[in-house]
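Lecture 7, part B: from sequences to assemblies.

Below are the input chains for today's worked example.
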Amino acid sequence: MQYSFASRAQTLLTSPLRNIRALAKRDSFISLAEELPAEELFPQHSLAEAAAAVLSQDPRSLQYGEAEGYGPLREWLSQDLGRRKGVHVQPDHILLTTGTQQALDLLVRVYVEPEDPVLIESPTSPGMLQVLRLQGARIIPIEGDEDGLLPDELERQIVEHKPKLLMAAPNFTNPTGVMWSLERRRQVLERCAKHELLIVEDDSYGDLYFADAEGIEARERIPSLFSLEQPQGNHVLYIGSFSKTVAPALRTGWAAGHRRLIEMMTAVKQMADWQSSLLNQRILQHMLDSKHFDLEEHIRMLNREYRTRLKLMIELLKRKQWKHARYAVPEGGMFLWVELPPGLNGDALLRAALLKGVAFLPGSMCSPSEKADGCIRLNFTHPGRDELLLGMNLISEAVTEFTARS
Amino acid sequence: MQYSFASRAQTLLTSPLRNIRALAKRDSFISLAEELPAEELFPQHSLAEAAAAVLSQDPRSLQYGEAEGYGPLREWLSQDLGRRKGVHVQPDHILLTTGTQQALDLLVRVYVEPEDPVLIESPTSPGMLQVLRLQGARIIPIEGDEDGLLPDELERQIVEHKPKLLMAAPNFTNPTGVMWSLERRRQVLERCAKHELLIVEDDSYGDLYFADAEGIEARERIPSLFSLEQPQGNHVLYIGSFSKTVAPALRTGWAAGHRRLIEMMTAVKQMADWQSSLLNQRILQHMLDSKHFDLEEHIRMLNREYRTRLKLMIELLKRKQWKHARYAVPEGGMFLWVELPPGLNGDALLRAALLKGVAFLPGSMCSPSEKADGCIRLNFTHPGRDELLLGMNLISEAVTEFTARS
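Predicted structure of the full complex, as structure tokens:
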């Protein structure tokens, strides 16, 4: 029969990431395209212990749970956000989601109507763009610099478009890795509050702060937009996850914010999938509460290793092929954003790289305009050091061929 | 600030089920309102073994997985559907979802535009109605009798409305527990195929077939719409889950169908939450593949126990308060659908019952019209025998009070 799909659904099939993933299944393929943590660093043993404990206790850990998510995990999170990030939020202002991607999707489903204007930090993550496209939002990119979003530009667009939302990731923005300055955070918050604009603050990467490898104190960190607004504020929905700090397969993220936002998102969550896995939430909570596991120490270990991998990548970019490439070295996160040597196009380079058995994310996927077509996003957290070396060699080869040709 | 939610999102907050759930958290409260399996029957020990095995092996069980779901579990499912249900489907025509609720939601998101007419078996599950309401579908209920949907009525509505979809659950429909006859299945399928109408066949309850307690052979079962159409058909999307047969907290359901449908649903799944928990899928697959666990034997045990609980409920309905109530005894599933004595309203009875510390699902939640207002849905799978007795006593008391008053 002829299936007649909803018109916007067609936009979902255009993602080149789908083809990259299909190729990446080949054994020797190296992908610097994805957003994966290093699996050899997962707290596998601690999670095994937690799973054994949870499954030997209460059979209700296998039952349906509450749409909001497991209460004791929301309580743990409430305390952890307060202690480590100066974010004060009650457990009943937190919704547990299937990763931050679901938190974004749920918020957009209850908040955005087709044709509604939505501001996004540009460039941005492909996942955020897809969510907005399926909902039919009018996507308005806002530029930034090395300190974060440009506040005057932001205000100009707010006044012109009267948008429903601003979506941003002030800590190590995906893909650029920019960390917004405190001053810039204050300015952005002030403009949004003045115009009553809701901000979705994605803090998926904030814990991957490499200064933390040296034992930086939590209070030395730049506060989130969410915490800057406290105690009275309600312009920010704060989202994050355990995918980068513990393990993605637990599929546990969260949204925290005003009770009305959380209530509405919980209602749509219940309709979308009833709830995320209670078993995973209980295993996670059991491990986090155990004396044998220290999340801060674990994150510090991750940061030491990821910082080393980033340094290696930076070294490899000092080769002559990359002489005319530009990049800022991020202080954390998972990605290096590279502006290719002049004349090179990310999509074309990717096609050449795929033939060599390596992938990265072309900039075109991170922007609704053509502005990022000359850029690529390189992931340095998943490939081990050998793989990283080999992968960068292959990409460098592809760059050489293009440069020689032009 | 003033949040301005999308207009349809408001429909999400009206569910009385939300209040029932809040009340049900009280310790002594008895709920016959929910759709819960009996937790004391979960294969807790086998799952603990499987979790230990999976977590001691490959750390990739904790990594991001594929949006389609874990390959070996899709292969297992493909074989199981063939062996036990005569459903022949290749693993790459299967998408693993977060329960059947997500399968419904994903399909509706890619297939239905606002104002599109959609036919549903009536009465139907509250979850199905919510999905359609949020998408803005025009919901058209189709009546049935004790053999299933009425085919002439179905065809009349197809011709009048040119709908996008028919949503139905031929095996122990939620809430009525009706099992469609083979003849009726053929008729419905033939009308839909003639008019090129896609059917979403929800087989969440098909395994809970109490004749199976006596060891009925798989081939004696009435085949699904999906398998009746094979090998050439493509008018049916077949959905189901492990929530009722293994455990809900694994949040593992599936959709099986034509490659184009599965591809589009996979794309929207990736946007919605990347993927369901790979860890859960691997634990489940490990247990199902293990020699120490036999799913058929496990389901047979469930059916013996659930049949006993249903019998007890039927006995309790023989009391005088229920003399003028009407119900058909289902051959399986999780619910008994009761038409209350004349003059009684399900919502009003629920308010009285809640004060007594017991809940059920009022019929009003299962229908877009007022047709089911005089009915209630009773769950007999979750409450243990004592709880079931006590719960039914309390509901009977409420009925007596109403009947005495009128």
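Note for the exam: Chain B has 13 helices and 14 strands. Keep this in mind when comparing with the next example.
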